[in-house]
Each structure stands twice: as C-alpha cells, then as structure tokens.
Automatic annotation (TrEMBL):
It comes from Aquimarina algicola. This is DUF2911 domain-containing protein. The lineage of its organism: Bacteria, Pseudomonadati, Bacteroidota, Flavobacteriia, Flavobacteriales. InterPro entries: DUF2911 (IPR021314), TPR-like_helical_dom_sf (IPR011990). It comes from the Bacteria.
C-alpha cells in the first residue's frame, strides 16, 4: 500500500527527533590512548579507565581467579612495532588484547591475538598468544582510577604497570637495543663514506659513554661534534661528564665551565643545563 504524501511528510519531520533522542552523556570510564617510546620500541596503550568510587575492587567487583578485560568497555589493547620480551616472554611485533586473571598474590597476564572483542565477550583461550604470571604488589596510597603506564625507562625498555585500588603489578618490557644501535653506529660512522653530522657523532658518543664502551672513541666523537656545532652547550656538558668519569678532572672542569657560560647566555633557554653544570662542577671541585 502506498503512503500518502502527508504520511511521508510527517515521517520526514519527526525522524530527526528519533535520531537525536540518545543523550550525549560523559563516559564514567573514559577511553585513553597513549603512544610512547620504550627503548627502541614504539608502544600504544588503549584502554578504558574505570574509577573505584565506594566499591571494593579486587576480590569483590573483580573476582579473583576470573578473566578480566583489564579495563572497561572494549578490551584493553597493546601495540608494539618491534619484537620485545614481556616478563622474559617473546612477543612478536603486533597488536594484542591485554587480559588478566587477578589473584590475591599473583596475576595471570594474557597476551591475546584477537583485538576486536568487546570486553571479555566471546573470549577464546585458543586465541591466546601466551600466558605468564607476575606477583602482586600491595600499595599504601589508593589509586582511584585504573592506570596502565610505563615507568623505570632505560635504554633497553621499561616496566609496564597496571595499578588500581591498592594493587599494582609490574611487567618488565625488554628489547635488546644494543646490537641495533651498534650496527647503526657502524654504518653511519665507522663505515660512512659521506658527510657525518654533528648530531650523529654526539648520539654515538653518548651511547658509547652510557654503555661504558671505548671511552677514547666516545671522547673523540664528542670533540668532533663540539667543533662542528660549538654553540651546542649540551655537547660540552656530556663531554665534561665523560671526562669526570675517567678522572680527567682538568678537561671535565674546562668543558663544564664552557657549557655553564654558554647556557647562561643562551637566548632560547638553558634547558636545565645551568643546574646540571653547577652540580657537576661541585663534584669536580671536590677532587684533588
């Protein structure tokens, strides 16, 4: 049966009221997406952040021994662009669901290959990449809103932390950066045939210094970087640090003083190097 013109017009006029009927209310568990570098890996965390309110969380709202989405709403996800280790377990580069089974003393951490689930609905253990356990840490200060983050960063990774209420778990992430960086230095400096930039010399020297590898070569590269970019007072500061480390206090004082003088007159700011230089000079002046 054909609709009359008036009926069609009526439907057309009232349709927007049905479309706009849903209330645009704020989420009680807002979604957060964090992108950060951990070692040489680029990591993305994507999760919903529920708050405690007046509820008891672990062992009550979230029972011990049962699968948890590790957040709210859609499942928590972690994406990594390089092969890494989580708690000494090999994780290929990719995107994964991050599920957990909380326990009073230990949590089971689950790296899941299906990232398209809503929470734990339709979860299938056959899609797990792997599982491992980590101990719980009881914390005095209450974490009101679920937090998933990294801390204790270092050249080879950092610690992935899940913290809520009075419970915290720590999952070390490790990526063996050294072979990658040594190879890059070999290609860009040791075997280079073209121009080498000051920043390349500085980055390589700083890496060698922090790794305790061949301080003489590190000093040579710092010096080349300083000659090429004499206004970079931070170059001089790290050259001073290296000299102090090898007990060449004369060079350390000279470079730290030069760095301090330049930092004080820098039109773009000192980036914290005035304080760094002054502290280093205090240590140098205590040496005989």
């Amino acid at each position: 049966m054909k609709l009359s013109f008036l009926k069609i017009l009526f439907i057309f006029l009232i349709a927007p009221f049905f479309v706009n009927a849903q209330i645009n209310k704020p989420s009680l568990s807002p979604r957060i997406v964090k992108e950060l570098q951990v070692g040489l890996a680029n990591v993305t965390l994507d999760y919903g952040r529920p708050s405690t309110g007046d509820r008891q969380i672990f062992g009550a709202l979230i029972p011990y021994g049962k699968l948890w989405r590790t957040g709210a709403n859609a499942s928590t996800k972690i994406s990594i662009d390089r092969d890494v280790q989580l708690a000494k377990q090999n994780i290929p580069a990719g995107s994964y669901g991050l599920y957990t089974i909380p326990g009073e003393k230990n949590w089971t951490i689950i790296i899941h290959k299906n990232t398209k689930l809503w929470g734990a609905g339709n979860y299938n253990q056959a899609d797990d990449l792997l599982r491992f356990t980590v101990p719980t840490i009881k914390i005095k200060d209450k974490v009101e809103t679920l937090a998933i983050y990294f801390e204790r960063f270092n050249a080879n990774g950092g610690d992935l932390v899940i913290a809520w209420e009075h419970t915290k778990v720590v999952i070390p992430l490790f990526i063996d950066s050294d072979p990658i960086l040594f190879k890059e230095i070999e290609e860009k400096i040791l075997k280079a045939t073209g121009e080498i930039k000051a920043q390349t010399y500085f980055d390589a020297a700083q890496f060698y210094y922090h790794k305790g590898k061949d301080f003489d070569i590190a000093a040579e590269w710092f010096d080349k970087a300083i000659v090429m970019k004499p206004k970079a007072f931070w170059y001089k500061y790290y050259r001073a640090e290296l000299a102090y480390h090898v007990k060449d206090y004369k060079t350390a004082k000279e470079k730290a003083t030069q760095s301090l003088d330049q930092a004080k007159t820098s039109e773009s700011g000192d980036y914290g190097y005035i304080a760094k230089c002054e502290l280093l000079l205090q240590k140098i002046n205590t040496q005989k």
